[in-house]
């Protein structure tokens, strides 16, 4: 038996060692004088028992117990505390901290010491077994056996905790109740065993729609719940719900049979309408009932305002999906000019969505197009349309126009865009040097390895890059330095409203100075008045865009005016 003896008193150490040797226990004794020394030995070697003096210099014995019992090392060490004091409270405190026995030094005899050592090792082993069993029972009590998900009990407790947490940081929490639409039919048709396998697979499918930090529980039967916490907007909840609905539309392959069950989802928000865990649960349940009533295979918000927003959004998404086929997109062009001579240098292509004569602006749909990835096919259409138009406009021109094309962060997630641009140039006989690809700081900020590759490939192929909306985002010099940008476009919101607006003027001056030092070209956007033109001239800005010259216009209008 390996024993660690921690005692600063040499006389006591000798006495204890002698007593131990006299007993017929086969012991190996290692000695330490302080808690730190003892802990060092404890981490280096394996011991069965530590005989620990309470009164030690610097740190007392209880501190050592606490450290041992909280160490990550799985400790099977039993602890016997020794003290000169007969204080009952001290004895109890030692036991509570994790010692198995307590001896008063003056009473130590060969028999007592031996018994304390043997009893405390046995007791400690029992305690460990009990703890293991407790852990197992706890898991059993909180887990659904079939799916391995947390069960109803765990869910209830977690919901209460999550609400308290969210109350503290005032963020939004969403509760999603999910119900399989035809699970009963699956059970009746294929039997319960197949039903069980279906449930397990459905759980895996739903899990793939989650990030992993959400609470996802099985409440019973075919009913599940998800708690989404710390949401920035309630739309995040509808996105998750949409993802689950879309994923569950694909039939699952159960023993070579394709079986499908769509889902109905009810969503309630906290603190919007619900104040307690009971209330939010009731609201999500009502919302789920509505989702079923309105035809299943859909999500429904309890909050009416959210439901209206949600439907609008779904409608927009659906319309957007068919807009390319219906040829509803159109490019408008805004001239980019030299402020002194008013010579047109080129154009920026700006998308419009024309639904039977009603023209929608990009701010109404670009974000949704990005979130649904629709921006990828739309973006390709923009590229082809803009390049073919430029080719037509440049026929016979000595000084060809440039064309600026807006590209969003989502479009940088795949290298295909570069091939597509290059193919379009070849097809229409346009030089890459005439194309300015406009990126925003968010696109640069995402900075994934693919986006870096796309940016490098664009440069290698001779495109120029400009940074759009400069001055509205982070405007970090590191972005300007680390990326091969040739132009920055000062955002329209920075144009001073009147000439006495010294703050904004100073801001523009500062940004211009910063860009100039870095050797970048500058385009000023939102040039709406003659004062703006004068300001740009004074700051030696060589290119400008704005309503003072022209609004964005369809190609035929541009052709009438400038060609
Ligand atoms: P942006 O690239 O910064 O485009 C400039 C915006 O400022 C345009 O808005 C333009 O109409 C507007 N503008 C131009 N001159 C003036 C002016 O003097 N005063 C004011 N107040 N505004 C002026 P628009 O066309 O609504 O486009 C908004 C944004 O939508 C664009 O900002 C761009 O980020 C995005 N966008 C437009 N077309 C596309 C596209 O094809 N693809 C992508 N990914 N984004 C696009
Ligand atoms: Mg732009
Ligand atoms: Mg801009």
Describe the structure.
The chain is α/β, with parallel strands linked by helices and 563 residues long. It has three domains: 2-140, 3-Layer(aba) Sandwich (Rossmann fold); 152-320, Alpha-Beta Plaits (2-Layer Sandwich); 324-562, TIM Barrel, CATH 3.20.20. It contains 20 helices and 22 strands. Strand 9 (252-254) and strand 10 (257-259) form a beta hairpin. The longest helix has 33 residues, at 110-142. The N and C termini lie far apart (98 Å). One magnesium ion binds next to loops.
Describe the secondary-structure layout.
Elements: E1 2-6, H1 10-22, E2 28-32, H2 35-44, E3 49-53, H3 61-70, E4 78-83, H4 88-97, E5 101-104, H5 110-142, H6 152-169, E6 172-180, H7 183-190, H8 192-207, E7 215-220, E8 223-231, H9 235-248, E9 252-254, E10 257-259, E11 263-270, H10 277-293, E12 299-301, H11 304-323, E13 329-337, E14 344-355, E15 358-360, H12 362-371, H13 375-394, E16 402-406, H14 416-428, E17 435-439, H15 441-446, H16 449-460, E18 464-470, H17 477-482, E19 487-490, H18 502-517, E20 521-524, H19 530-538, E21 543-544, E22 553-554, H20 555-562
Parallel strand pairs: 1-2, 1-3, 3-4, 4-5, 11-12, 14-16, 16-17, 17-18, 18-19, 19-20, 20-21
Antiparallel strand pairs: 6-8, 6-11, 7-8, 9-10, 13-14, 13-22, 14-15
This protein binds ligand C2E and magnesium ion (2 copies).
The major β-sheet equals: 10 strands, mixed
Ions, cofactors and other bound molecules? ligand C2E, magnesium ion
What's the CATH H-level homologous superfamily of the largest domain? EAL domain
Could you give the count of β-strands?
A: 22
Low-pLDDT parts are none
Instruction: Specify the overall morphology.
Output: elongated
Q: Could you name the CATH topology of the largest domain?
A: TIM Barrel
Determine the fraction of residues in helical runs and give it as a percent range. Answer: 40-55%
Give the averaged pLDDT, no decimals. 92
């Amino acid at each position: 038996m390996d024993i660690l003896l921690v005692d600063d008193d040499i006389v006591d150490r000798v006495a204890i060692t002698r007593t131990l040797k006299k007993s017929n226990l086969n012991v190996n004794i290692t000695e330490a004088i302080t808690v730190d020394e003892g802990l060092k030995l404890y981490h280096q070697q394996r011991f069965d028992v530590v005989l620990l003096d309470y009164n030690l210099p610097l740190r007392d014995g209880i501190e050592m117990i606490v450290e041992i019992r909280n160490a990550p090392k799985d400790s099977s060490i039993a602890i016997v505390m020794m003290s000169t004091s007969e204080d009952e409270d001290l004895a109890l405190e030692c036991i509570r901290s994790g010692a198995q026995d307590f001896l008063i030094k003056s009473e130590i005899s060969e028999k007592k010491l031996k018994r304390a050592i043997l009893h405390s090792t046995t007791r400690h082993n029992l305690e460990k077994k009990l703890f293991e069993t407790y852990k197992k029972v706890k898991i059993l009590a909180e887990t659904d056996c079939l799916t391995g998900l947390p069960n109803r009990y765990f869910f209830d407790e977690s919901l209460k905790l999550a609400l308290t947490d969210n109350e503290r940081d005032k963020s939004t929490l969403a509760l999603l109740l999910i119900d399989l639409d035809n699970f009963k039919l699956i059970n009746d048709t294929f039997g319960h065993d197949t039903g069980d396998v279906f449930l397990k697979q459905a759980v895996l499918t739903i899990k793939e729609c989650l990030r992993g930090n959400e609470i996802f529980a099985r409440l019973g039967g075919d009913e599940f719940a998800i708690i989404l916490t710390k949401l920035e907007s309630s739309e995040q909840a509808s996105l998750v719900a949409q993802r689950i609905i879309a994923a569950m539309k694909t039939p699952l392959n159960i023993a070579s049979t394709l079986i499908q069950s769509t889902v109905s989802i009810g969503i309630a928000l906290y603190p919007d309408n619900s104040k307690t865990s009971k209330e939010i649960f009731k609201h999500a349940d009502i919302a789920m009932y509505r989702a079923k009533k309105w035809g299943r295979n859909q999500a429904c918000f309890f909050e009416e305002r959210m439901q209206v927003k949600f439907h609008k959004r779904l409608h927009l998404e659906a319309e957007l999906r068919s807009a390319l086929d219906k040829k509803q997109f159109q490019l408008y062009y805004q001239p980019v000019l030299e402020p002194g001579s008013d010579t047109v240098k080129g154009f920026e292509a700006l998308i419009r969505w024309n639904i039977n004569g009603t023209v929608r602006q990009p701010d109404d749909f670009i974000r949704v197009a990005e979130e649904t990835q629709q921006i990828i096919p739309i973006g390709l259409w923009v590229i082809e349309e803009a390049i073919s138009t430029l080719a037509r406009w440049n026929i016979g021109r000595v000084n060809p126009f440039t064309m600026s094309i807006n590209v969003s962060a989502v479009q940088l997630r795949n290298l295909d865009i570069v091939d597509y641009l290059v193919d379009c140039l070849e097809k229409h006989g346009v030089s890459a040097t005439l194309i300015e690809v406009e990126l925003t700081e968010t696109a640069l900020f995402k900075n994934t390895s693919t986006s870096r590759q796309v940016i490098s490939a664009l440069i290698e192929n001779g495109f120029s890059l400009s940074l759009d909306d400069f001055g509205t985002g982070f405007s970090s010099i590191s972005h300007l330095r680390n990326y091969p940008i040739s132009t920055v476009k000062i955002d329209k919101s920075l144009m001073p409203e009147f000439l006495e607006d010294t703050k904004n003027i100073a801001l523009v001056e500062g940004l211009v100075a910063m860009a100039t030092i870095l050797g970048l070209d500058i385009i000023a956007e939102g040039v709406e008045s003659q004062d703006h033109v004068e300001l740009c001239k004074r700051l030696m800005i060589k290119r400008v865009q704005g309503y003072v010259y022209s609004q964005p216009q369809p190609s035929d209008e541009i052709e009438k005016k400038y060609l």
